[in-house]
Specification:
The complex is a heterodimer of chains A (about 300) and B (about 110). Chain A is mainly beta and about 300 residues long. Chain A is about 5% helix and about 55% strand. Chain A contains two helices and 19 strands. Chain A is globular and about 65 Å long. In chain A, about 50% of the residues are buried. Chain B has about 110 residues and is α+β, with helices and mostly antiparallel strands. Chain B is built from three helices and four strands. About 10% of the residues of chain B have low confidence. Classes of the chains: A mainly beta (about 300), B alpha+beta (about 110). Chains A and B meet through strand 6 of A and helix 2 and strand 2 of B.
């Protein structure tokens, strides 16, 4: 692969690679939770035995805050399909298959160029086990660790008129990446609090290795409607505020650390949720509050998500 | 003339028997509707609407269960049984447990 990259040799391609690497790529579009609960990360709520849950979401990320001279504009649309199944009351399995549309525009010595690709990306498979469950009337507290693996199901060698796409623009990484974390949920009739930590070890493929990613998330959901509970199972309308703190290590290209990649991002996200016994509808906007990225890494403007969940 | 008379008599008997049959079925149906059997299960941990589905599904799958209704605020699952059916407490507790929640007391409100 190294030989093929060198054989391209054109200045535009080289400039694009450098530009992209300078942009970095902090992947925050994690989506591996399906129960009612936080919108942007894992919860510890149960998936009942024998129940199947499907979740769909559209995630749009825009990044134009460029400290370099390339005036980069990155837009990524991700549509993940998430499947969850309760094997037992405590053991659940999850599968996430995303569809991506990635676009990057930048100014090079040859003018304005646009690169990108669209298609199925890398899939993630997780298993979660509830270690602790404390139930009371209208109150549940859960603690559930999880482990998983990101599989290279997305194309990782796409090319365009300028040559091979830089690795962060590829639909897949080509690597198998293990994931581990744990989640906590405290849910009452009136509100819910969730917290989770997760670490992903990114491994090397195509002489490229994304920096490892660590994240800490928190969510608070407050029932806005109905003001008091009536009989039966009423529909809930929640106001949501979430926090995502993400650390990404520097990428490595052919063994050399990229100084313009990785860093720390903290996002705050207000959202809304409509919850019935069969369906959840939700929307949220993630706004970067702190972005301490390395070098000229491209900073994110916002992330917008909208989606639904259905149980069967 | 006698043949017509006999046909008429037979027809009246058939009609009368049919009416008696319909009355008997109607009485039986009424008696079924008047004697529903309920079981109330106290459940802890079900605190959002999306969680209710799994609970209702697990219990609803049990043989003999005609209907399941959750009163979420009170933490009660009201189970209606089919006529003549029985469901063990063990099966009910297991169903709640498999749904991911904690079963507490089980009450039989129809019992004398």
């Amino acid at each position: 692969m190294s030989t093929r990259l060198k054989s391209r040799g054109c200045a535009v391609w080289a400039g694009s690679v450098v530009a992209w690497l300078a942009g970095g790529a902090i992947v925050i579009a994690d989506l591996d939770r399906v129960e009612a609960g936080p919108i942007t990360f894992n919860s510890a709520l149960p998936v009942p035995q024998g129940v199947f849950i499907f979740r769909g979401q559209a995630i749009l990320s825009r990044s134009t805050d460029d400290s370099s001279t390339m005036d980069r504009d990155r837009k990524v649309l991700t549509i993940p399909a998430v499947f969850a199944y309760g094997v037992t009351r405590d053991f659940a399995v999850f599968g996430i298959v995303p569809y991506h549309e990635k676009r990057l525009e930048l100014t090079t010595s040859s003018g304005r160029v646009r690169r990108g690709d669209s298609g199925v990306g890398d899939s993630t498979f997780l298993v979660r086990y509830t270690l602790l469950a404390i139930d009371r009337l209208g109150d549940t507290r859960r603690f559930a660790p999880f482990v998983g693996l990101k599989a290279p199901t997305g194309d990782d060698d796409q090319v365009d008129g300028l040559g091979r796409l830089p690795q962060p623009l590829q639909l897949g990484s080509g690597s198998w990446d293990p994931i581990a974390g744990t989640s906590f949920t405290w849910q009452t009739f009136d509100w819910e609090f969730d917290a989770a930590v997760q670490y992903r070890v990114n491994t090397e493929a195509n002489n490229f290795e994304f920096g490892d990613q660590a994240r800490a998330d928190a969510s608070f959901q407050y029932r806005l409607w109905p003001p008091t509970l009536g009989s039966g199972v009423p529909t809930f309308f929640y106001g949501v505020i979430e926090s995502n703190l993400v650390y990404a290590g520097k990428n490595t290209v052919e063994g050399v650390s990229d100084p313009n990649s990785g860093g720390i991002t903290w996002l705050l996200a207000p959202g809304l949720q409509y919850v019935t016994r069969r369906v959840v509808l939700e929307a949220i906007v993630q706004i970067p509050v702190v972005q301490d990225l390395n070098g000229t890494a491209l900073e994110r403007d916002y992330i917008v998500r909208g989606g639904f969940r259905v149980n069967f | 003339m006698m043949a017509i008379y006999r046909v008429g008599i037979v027809g009246i008997w058939v009609l009368a028997l049919g009416m008696v049959q319909m009355a008997a079925v109607s009485a039986g149906r009424s008696s079924t509707e008047e004697t529903p059997r309920h079981i109330i299960i106290r459940v802890d941990g079900a605190s959002c609407p999306f969680c209710a589905f799994g609970l209702e599904k697990r219990i609803g799958r049990l043989d003999g269960v005609a209907n399941v209704r959750l009163e979420m605020k009170e933490g009660k699952v009201i189970v209606t049984l089919e006529e003549g059916a029985t469901v063990s407490e063990e099966a009910l507790r297991r169903a709640v447990d498999e749904a991911g929640f904690t079963p507490r007391e089980i009450v039989y409100p129809d019992s004398p």
